[in-house]
Amino acid sequence: MKRDYKTNRQKGFTLIELVVVIAILAILAAFALPRFAQLSEQAHQSSIRATAGALAAGVALTKTQWVSNGLTTATANVQGFGNDNVDVSDEGWPTATNDVTSADMTEARCQQVWAGVLQSNAPSIAGTDPDYAVTIQGDADGDPGSDCVFTYQLDGQGSTIVYDADTGEITTTIN
After folding, report:
1. Helix, strand, coil in percent for the chain, rounding step 5
2. What's the pLDDT score for residue 106?
3. CB of 159 within 8 A of CB of 48?
4. CA–CA separation, 133 vs 144, rounded Å?
5. In this structure, is the dihedral angle defined by the CA atoms of residues 107, 109, 111 and 113, taken in order, positive or negative?
6. C-alpha distances in angstroms, 63 versus 26, 57, 110?
């Protein structure tokens, strides 16, 4: 009786095929990685712009509610906006949430304006690894008092959102 022995050849990729695949992947990675890094940077910039827009809208809505209520002087706890706890200056711009109506800002009052105007969806400004760090700077327009500076922390570029409580102006600097 004759036995039929089949020789089992190992099947797989040859060394040349593997080298070609690795070369193709390396070329794709060379084009994809810089594009991915750029997308990440664009996402951070979009986040800063969106937050600045939300802050500007909240500030404008606070003043609108102050005007709608028929008020013309500094007021504690503007009724009808947010949690009815935002205080405004003589010009109707938000200044705090603890019955302070002076436009001379402190870091604590900047945090209060941030939380009071942006409400529950505000990016974090306190605690461990906050999205924004809060500082104050001398008033850029020459008025007495200080401006709130919110510095974006997540990308380490030092981009800022500045709130001037004298004029209600929001200025964004993206680095």
Report:
1. 40, 15, 45
2. 93
3. yes
4. 23
5. negative
6. 56, 10, 17
| pLDDT tens digits, one per residue of 84-103 | 999 999 999 999 999 888 88
Cα distances from 37 to residues 24, 79, 158, 168, in angstroms, run 20, 45, 18, 35
Give the pTM: 0.79
CA–CA gap between residue 66 and residue 75 (Å, rounded): 8
CB 101 within 8 A of CB 76: yes
- The answer to whether 59 and 117 are in contact (CB under 8 A) is yes
Is the sign of the CA dihedral 29, 31, 34, 37 positive or negative? negative
Helix (H) or strand (E) holding 115: helix 107-118
CA atoms of 52 and 103, how far apart (whole Å): 20
- Is residue 59 predicted with pLDDT exceeding 90? yes
CB hemisphere CA count around 82 (13 angstroms): 29
